[in-house]
Structure formats: structure tokens, C-alpha cells
Fold:
Amino acid sequence: MDKRTLVNIIRFVALLTIQILLLNNIVLFGYYQPYLYVLAILLLPEEMSKAMVMMIAFLTGFFVDIFSGTYGIHAFASVLMAFVRPIVLGELVPFDGYDKYKDFLPGHYGMKWFLKYSLWTVAIHHLALIILEAFSFANLGLLFSQWFVDVLLTESLLLLTIFATSRNQ
Amino acid sequence: MVVRYNIKQKAVFDVVSSSVVGNINEWFASVNAYFHLKEENNLLQSENAGLRDVLSMKSDICKHNLYGLSARIGQFETIPAHIVRNSTQWQHNFFTIDKGSIDGVRENMAVVSSTGIAGVVFHTSSHFATVISLLNTKLQISAAIKRTHFAGTMVWDGADARYSMLVNIPNHIIIEKGDTVVTGGFSSVFPKNMAIGRVSFITSDENSNFLSLQVELFTDFSCLDAVYVLKNNYLQEQKTLEKQLPKEDG
Structure:
């Protein structure tokens, strides 16, 4: 097992632990919650096949579902995110293409690039999550405000995690 | 009380309330509980005070037991439980408690906190049970204004974990802010007259002739920990009797 695979595995274990034990118990104003575990899916290597990413995303989401008592919504949202990931990556491809030995981190492709990449994918993930859970458009305004705040929370926590764990570059 | 729930994925909930996941959640909830110890102690203390008051009215205690006039002595049994997982942010919230079928918890039993009602048991495994929270837009509970005894339906609007809605109260009923809302009498799940909340906002819809009341819930779901499952000992008897009624729709 090479170093990169190991880093990814550790990342999944760490983020899932944080999500399940810590973040699942932090619900701001009883309504807003960050979902940091999506970062692990975002940072999977570029060379990994689409099917493999979706499979991993499903397992990750399912795991979160089991511990949150939500029935399949995290699994769905994660697979959807894994599905749109290559599309977003394709739209945002930098001038000289992706380096398959580099992770999708702001340190490698720039902050602006990373913000676009993570905002799109996280927004789609959260939208699917919230709409699927409600399964009705009765409280649409409310759901959208929840979506907006959740995306902001996840995004800021995601950047914080990256800055806290990245070595000086 | 009406539970309109047709979820076929009950199997998933088997996993949720199964031993491994339940035990991990339980372990973390036990850590988490320390952060709410003070509030929890205050709640239990005030509940004790209330029970002392009931005790002091000795002559009445035989007729008026804890669960009000409608219940007989011994009709309701109380199973104490703790919450090991809870949520408030979804439209359909559930929580998990640490008592299951081994402890006598069955589906459709009432779950109450020391301040008000909390939910209805959805599914049980041997050591855990999942509960449909009052904060679930699919859960409808028969409720009444305590002062006027007019009954309506309690249903959460999905907006704010502190408030729920009481609907289907006719327009001509005079209701004041601060009126207490209690469980209605036509339920085999909840005992009559259990506290739910207090009317905090009244809206009247000209088109429908019904009032829509915002009710401030007595139960604080954000730090709910100790709950009681109420077992109705006469439920089976009542159901068997009611089964013998002639069917109207034929």
C-alpha cells in the first residue's frame, strides 16, 4: 500500500469519526449542521475511477446514515456528489491540466480554484440531502435558508480543517 | 393520535437501533450527558416537587392519579429511559432511547419527558427503541386547549424546534395567548391531559374558518435526556373490544 492510499484511508477514518462523534451532536440553533465528512470524498485522487469514487461515497454516506438515524439520505447525497465531481472537475480544469500525483487541495491549484470546486460539490450534496429528507416543498424558503447556512458552515469548517492539517507549503 | 406512517424501510431502523450502533451512540451520549447535568437536575428536581404536591393531596390521590381523571390506577406503567441519539434539524426527526423490547417497550407507546410529551415509539430492537419525535411533520397528535377542552390536531410545521402548531380549532372558540395545550382524550397512546405546551401566537384564516395556533413546547428537545415510556396496560383490552364494532364502510 503506497503512502497516498494510506493518507486517504486515515482521512476517511478521521473525518467520519469527527462527523459521527462530534459534529452530529453540534446543531446550531437546533437547525444548522455542518457535514465535514464530504471533504474525504472531495480529496479522493484524480486517477481513481468514477465507479470506485461512487462506491466509496455510498459506503461513507451509508455509514453516516446508520449513526445519524437518517435512512439513506447521506448515502444518496454522497453518491450524487461523487457523480457530479468529475463534471465539476472537468469544468474547472486548470490551464495546464491536473497533476495526477497531487491531491485536490488549495495549495496545489490555488485558493480560487478550490473554492469553486468545493462550493459546487458541497452545495449539490447539501441540496440533495435537505430536499430528500423533507421530501416536500411545503417549507421551501426554510429549506433553502437551511441549505445556505449548512453550505457556509461546511465550507468554513472544511477550509479550517485543510489549513489546520496542511504542512507549510 | 394518528400516526400516518408507511415507511417500508423499517429494516434500516433495525440496523440503527441494533446493538453495535446503539452502544456507540449510547457511549457518546453518556459523555454528552455531562454537559447538560445541571439543567437535567433542575428539571428532575422540579418534577419531584410536583410529585410531592400530588402526594400532599392524599385524599385525592386515589381518584386523581398522576395521569389525570381518565386513567385508572395502574392503567399506565412508566419505563424510565435515556436518549442516546436525537435530532432537531430535519423535517422528520427521530430519536433513539436506551430501552427496548426486553424492557417492555413496544411500538406506539407514548414517550414523555418530565415537562411535556416527547414522541411515540416507532420501532424497537431488544435493547433500544427509535421514537418518532414531536418534531416530525408526519406525526399528528390529538390535543386540546386545557381551559376550553376544545380538541384539535397537533402537528409540527418543520420550522422551529421550540414551537409546534395546533390546527383544526374552529374560529369561534375564544383562545388567549398563554393557554395551556394538553393531550386530548381520544387517544389510546397518551393519557388525557398531559402537558404539551403553551399558546404563543394565534392566526385565524378567513378562508377556512379554523384557527391555527403556534404552541411553545414545554419539552426542550435540544437538550432532552431523561424520558419516560408510558405503557398502557389496558390497550389490548380496548382494541379487542373495539374490533367487535360493526364496520361502517362496507
